[in-house]
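Below sits the subject:
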Amino acid sequence: MRSHNDFQTFLHELAADFQDPRFLWQLAAIALAVGIAWWLDRRLRPRLSGSEGAWKLGAGGLRRVIFPFSALMVVLALRYALKGRVPVHLLDLAVPLLVAMAAIRLIVYMLRQVFASGSLLAGAERTIAWGVWLTVALYVTGLGIEVGDFLDEISFHIGKQRISLLVILHGLLTVAVTLLVTMWLGSTLERRVMGVQALDMSLRVVLTKVLRAGVIVVGVLIALPLVGIDLTVLSVFGGALGVGLGLGLQKIASNYVSGFIILLDRSVRIGDNITVDNRVGQVTEITTRYVVLRGPDGTEALIPNDTLVTSTVVNQSYTDRKLRLAIPVQVSYRSDLDQAMAIMVAAAKKQPRVLSDPEPMVALREFADSGINLELGAWIADPEEGRLNLVSAINLEIWREFRRQGIEIPYPQREVRILGSQPVP
């Protein structure tokens, strides 16, 4: 970092260069470097965008340093060519700034890969990189002292406490860095815990939620003293939170507590097929506030955890994932029942998803008005693959065999008699 005297000397040198007509050579050199770097960036970026696999990470880093690295090479070449002929103080300043830009872009990109895909860095990588680069630029040029003094002069008082814009920016930066570190640590711990196959999935989810919450709390406890906030204010916040829970946040608190209850007692687990609140589907995700239930038609319902704790839940895979399909079929009274039942059993056995133990069987349910009602019962072990598609395949096979064997599927018939009517002449 330049000292105050060095900075003043540097400003005088730049001012002297500006008064010299040869200063235009430096501006032209920087403009040429930016133009060439921009052209190379536009030409090379598309070629690096299609990389896959292990090359994808390296290609992403190269895309981010093409512009500053190309501009740096051109500036170094032009500075070497112009040195001794014209002053090059502006080019001397451009070299460390371009080096800092390349390094910062690469570091921020690597941090983005470390964090989860949905983290803050994924959506604001460019903004963060430019913000850090501007800070480094102030540090390199020595303007940080003057800017810091200017920001410190913009202040106001809250009681006896003096708060300046510099203090606010410093606090926001400290909190942001602390939270980023805690988020990275939480994501790392979450990946490690979720990778332990020896633990039950529900237990892994509970541990990850507890660890993430604990890491964030520790981060907040570290950030507040660094900003200058006394930790005793948390007692006031805790009292306000308690009043809020008592007045209007009972339902939210109930959902969070119910979420941990569900995860700990393992009554509902990821992958279970359940029926709750007139909705049928497979549990695909369990969070601390709701459960994601994916229906057979692909729609996803967010069921509050409180509903699963206080309502009756039909869990079709609580102790056994086997599920019985009941397929009703009606045949006429003139049909051969033994042959019809054999065809229905054979149609079920042709489907690879139907289990052989227990075997499919047909039951005679009742003698109805229009025909005899039969029911085919078949067991499957993968209800998450869908039931309607299997029922449709079995029904289609039954229909084909019935038509081939001449077995009739009746339809309702009514005979109308008119009593006391006069004969038509």
